[in-house]
Amino acid sequence: MKIRMLGCGGSFGSPLAWNRNGNIDINNNNNFRTRSSILINTDNTNILIDTSPDLRQQLYKAQCTRIDAVLFTHIHSDHTAGLPDMRAMSLINDKIIPAYMPDNMKNDILSHYKFIFKGDKDYKPFMKICSLNNFFSINNIKIETFKHNHGSIDVQTYKINNFAYSTDLKKFYNNDLDKLKNLDLWIVGLLRDEPHPSHAGFDQIMEYINYIKPKKTIFTHMTALLDEKKLSSKIPKNIIVGYDGFEINI
C-alpha cells in the first residue's frame, strides 16, 4: 500500500495569507501546506480520502489521472469543496465515481452539489453517493470505519489493513481507540499545540499515540502555528511531521 499526503494543512492552509505566517519558517517549503487529503494506492486501486479545495493542484502534482472511490470524513468545506474537480477524473476514465459518506452528510452534499450526483441541464452526473457501513469493501479491499468527535459534529476514522486515518480529532468514543492499537501507520490531525474546542492539542494526541503504539505516526491538518522543524525537535523519531507530497509504503 502506498499513501501520498496530497495536503496536510488546516482549513486556511499554511501560511494563512500573504505575510500572515504564524510561527512557521517560510524558507522551509514543507511549511507550505494545502488543505488536507490523502491518496491511497493498493491492489491497483486508487482511493481518495476527502476532496480538498486544492484537489486539482494536488492530483496534478501526484500525476494521478484515476480515482476509483472517494471516502469522506465529514461535511466541512476544507474536506469537500474540491468535489467539482472530480469531473475530470470521471471524464478521463468514463466512469461514475462512488463517494462513500455518512448519512448525516448526504442532504448537505446533495444541496450543495446536486449537479455532481443528480446532473443538471447540460451536466450529467459523474459521481454517486454510497452509504457507509462499519465494514465495507472497495474492489475487495476491506475497510473499517467508525465515528470520532470533532466538537459539535462527528468525523469518520478510516482503517485499511494496518493503516488508519483520523483527521479533525477532538476525542474518541467508548473503546474505539482500542481499534487502533499496534497499527503500522496512523495519520492523525494535529491542528496546533494548544487544545481547541474541536481539536485535541499536542499533549492529548501524544497520549493517544503512547496508548495505541503505532509503528509510525504522521501529523496532518496543521496550521501555520506549527513549524515543521520545531515540532520535529520534540517528538520521537517514529513520529513524522507530514508535508504536501510526502509518500510512504507500508
Short description:
This protein is α/β, with parallel strands linked by helices and 250 residues long. It has helices spanning 55-61, 77-80, 86-93, 103-112, 114-117, 202-212, 228-232; strands at residues 2-7, 37-42, 45-49, 69-71, 97-101, 127-131, 135-138, 141-150, 153-160, 163-166, 171-172, 185-189, 216-220, 239-241, 247-249.
Describe this structure in words.
This protein has 250 residues and is an alpha/beta fold. The chain has one domain (2-249): Metallo-beta-lactamase, Chain A, CATH 3.60.15. The protein contains 7 helices and 15 strands. It has helices at residues 55-61, 77-80, 86-93, 103-112, 114-117, 202-212, 228-232, and strands spanning 2-7, 37-42, 45-49, 69-71, 97-101, 127-131, 135-138, 141-150, 153-160, 163-166, 171-172, 185-189, 216-220, 239-241, 247-249. The strands form 2 sheets. Strands 7, 8, 9, 10, 11, 12, 13 and 14 form an 8-stranded mixed beta sheet that branches. The protein has a 7-stranded mixed beta sheet with strand order 6-5-4-3-2-1-15. A hairpin with a 2-residue loop joins strand 9 (153-160) and strand 10 (163-166). The chain is globular, with a radius of gyration of 17 Å. The chain starts with a strand and ends with a strand.
